[in-house]
């Protein structure tokens, strides 16, 4: 008799953003005359930068000619993209990352979700709360947790992000083996200082642990004191894997291109205590299960690093940060405290009210979609996340509607 992976039965019935989409679609069907503005899921709205579009067209033309046509590319990504990433995202910041330590993929979500496959099932996890649900859900699926009770899975060390700690979790007092960190944070928009990240690197070294550092939103950092990469921290090359994405940097949510950095110096141990480089394990996994990102898409991604591409992506991010500023000012005028939005595209609003109720209020009274904080974890209760990804016109309209609804 065929059997299911019973760890799936520990999960909530559906993924957070699918759940929200269902509720929103039900509202839209019932109220077709009331247009809804979506500031929920962090999905970009503005078109690709012209430099990326030109590169995409040119690469598509190459695929149309026998002499320049390409079949399978290297699973890890074309050298032109890996070298551009190594130079612009790492060498330029003083980080020693080689091009062959970079694995190009079709999304940071997939990479963050898949990376846990290369670790043992019985390791100890440290996972933030609130958190991007992919980190915890993929570990539940793999059987690394016990059942969920009262919004928390047994066996996980939760890293609470609360108003009391400025939404930057403290280092745990117990030893853990695999630590998920995300800065600028999704969902809170909080950022971590060099000193805070250095403390995590020291903790990981002390515990022979590995940090999975999600910096998908680093391009939104405007404060020059805030690190963009964990590799800006001395010693991080020995203990950290980093995830990056072009989704929010250059509008690639629908185009799909991201990358993961696995330095050759990061190791994990077998049962006999022998160290194994994770680069080799991830390379084995990647080449077995992935056949590379489409050539035209990688060409479009590489165009981000040209002079024109850099100017255009900066303008795009400045635009979304402009939205975030408007949202922050409005939120404060409504009397709520919030963080984020200055070095991140998300604002995390402390409403002090049940987060799903607040979500329903905004949907039914203002026709605006936000993300209820409780969907990101127990510590998210009392909060909602508002995303800055939308047109200026829609953001202004949404803020006017919410203001009126709250009055
Ligand atoms: C979010 O809204 O948290 C993100 O857009 C989801 C994602 O990147 O998968």
What's the gist of this structure?
With 407 residues, the protein is an alpha/beta fold.
N- and C-termini, Cα separation: 59 Å
Query: Quick one: how many beta strands?
Result: 17
Helix and strand composition category: alpha/beta
Q: What name goes with the CATH superfamily of the largest domain?
A: Type I PLP-dependent aspartate aminotransferase-like (Major domain)
Largest sheet strand order: 2-10-9-8-7-3-6
User: From the 3D coordinates, which CATH architecture of the largest domain would you assign?
Assistant: 3-Layer(aba) Sandwich
Main pleated sheet: 7 strands, mixed
What's the tally of helices? 12
Q: What small molecules does the structure contain? A: D-malate
**CATH C-level class of the largest domain:** Alpha Beta
- State Rg: 21 Å
| Domain count | 2
Roughly what percent helix? 25-40%
- Uncertain residue segments: none
Strand percentage, roughly?
Answer: 15-25%
Looking at the structure, what is the overall shape?
globular
Q: What is the H-and-E element order?
A: HEHHEHEHEEEEHEEHEEEHHHEEHEEEH
The name of the CATH topology of the largest domain is Aspartate Aminotransferase, domain 2
């Amino acid at each position: 008799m065929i059997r299911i992976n019973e760890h799936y039965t520990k999960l909530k019935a559906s993924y957070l953003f699918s759940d929200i989409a269902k509720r929103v679609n039900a509202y839209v069907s019932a109220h077709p005359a009331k247009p809804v503005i979506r500031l929920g899921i962090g999905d970009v709205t503005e078109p690709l930068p012209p430099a990326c579009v030109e590169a995409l067209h040119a690469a598509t033309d190459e695929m149309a000619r026998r002499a320049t046509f390409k079949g399978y590319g290297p699973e890890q990504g074309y050298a032109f993209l890996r070298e551009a990433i190594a130079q612009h995202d790492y060498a330029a910041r003083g980080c020693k990352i080689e091009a062959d330590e970079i694995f190009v993929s079709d999304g940071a979500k997939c990479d963050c979700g898949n990376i846990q496959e290369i670790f043992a099932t019985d390791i100890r996890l440290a996972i933030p709360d609130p958190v991007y649900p992919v980190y915890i859900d993929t570990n539940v699926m793999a059987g690394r947790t016990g059942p969920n009770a009262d919004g928390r899975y047994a066996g996980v060390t939760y890293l609470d992000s609360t108003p009391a700690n400025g939404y930057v979790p403290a280092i745990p007092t117990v030893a853990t083996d695999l630590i998920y960190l995300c800065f600028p944070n999704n969902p809170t928009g909080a950022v971590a200082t060099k000193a805070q990240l250095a403390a995590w690197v020291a903790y990981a070294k002390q515990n022979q642990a590995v940090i999975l550092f999600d910096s998908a939103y680093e391009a939104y950092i405007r404060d020059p004191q805030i690190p963009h990469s964990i590799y800006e921290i001395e010693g991080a090359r020995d203990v950290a894997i980093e995830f990056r994405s072009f989704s929010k940097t250059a509008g690639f949510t629908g185009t799909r291109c991201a990358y993961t950095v696995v330095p050759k110096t990061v190791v994990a141990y077998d049962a006999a205590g022998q160290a194994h480089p994770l680069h080799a394990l991830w390379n084995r996994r990647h080449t077995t299960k992935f056949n590379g990102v489409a050539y035209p898409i990688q060409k479009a991604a590489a165009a981000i690093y040209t002079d024109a591409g850099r100017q255009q992506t900066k303008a795009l991010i400045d635009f979304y940060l402009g939205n975030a500023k408007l949202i922050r000012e409005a939120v404060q005028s409504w009397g709520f405290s919030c963080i984020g939005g200055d070095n991140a595209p998300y604002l995390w609003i402390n409403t002090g009210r049940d987060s799903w109720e607040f979500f329903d209020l905004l949907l039914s009274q203002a026709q605006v979609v936000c993300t209820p904080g409780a969907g990101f974890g127990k510590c998210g209760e009392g909060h909602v996340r508002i995303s800055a990804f939308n047109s200026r016109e829609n953001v202004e309209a949404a803020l006017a509607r919410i203001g009126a609804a709250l009055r």
